[in-house]
Amino acid sequence: MVLYRRNRVAGATYFFTVALGDRTSRLLTERIAEFRRAYAEVRSRRPFETVALVVLPDHLHAVWRLPTDDFDYSSRWRAIKAGFVRSLRQHGLAPVMNLRGEADVWQRRFWEHTIRDEADLRAHMDYVHWNPVKHGYVTRVSDWPHSTFHRYVRQGVLPRDWGGSNVPSTRGQRFGE
Q: The whole model's pTM is what?
């Protein structure tokens, strides 16, 4: 078994990449209501701030800020994944089981990065919002419905045409895909 080293800092801001086991699947966007329900349920029980989020067909990227006295993002992701699988079952989808007896929906692990400063935060938020364009799902960021980009437009933080045809600068940045 691989021993993963995770950085755990109470109250920190983190970037995550979480992927389905089948990277050709479209399950996350086809069953977005079930994902949103699982996400909201965990957030209501174990609060965290969603700074940025994009849900793509086979993976998602998120930037979370945890409460000042809490560093446990792993149990939150475990609960979101389990809640999504439970919701799929409740809606008549029977996920394939693996040899461990687990539903074979999600990759077992996820990518995590602790945000270092404001510039790092901005670069990761840009990456999250640009990702549907990067993967060719849309030609404009504003055309992808499953993104916190729309919240930032409503708040007047970002213009609706942000990233219209130019890739945001992420040179030198490493992201979790």
A: 0.89
| SS3 call for 165 | coil
Q: How far apart are CA 16 and CA 65, in angstroms?
A: 11
- Please state the φ and ψ torsions of residue 81, each to the nearest 5 degrees: -60, -50
Asked if pLDDT for residue 170 goes beyond 80, the answer is no
Contact 32, 64 (CB under 8 A): no
Alpha carbon distance 19, 100 (integer Å) = 19
| One-letter identity of residue 105 | V
Positive or negative: CA dihedral 166, 170, 175, 177: positive
Could you say which DSSP state residue 115 is in?
-
Number of C-beta neighbours around residue 150 at 10 A: 16
Domain range list for the chain: 13-154
The alpha carbon of residue 76 and the mean position of all alpha carbons in its chain are separated, in whole angstroms, by 12
CATH superfamily of 13-154: Transposase IS200-like (3.30.70.1290)
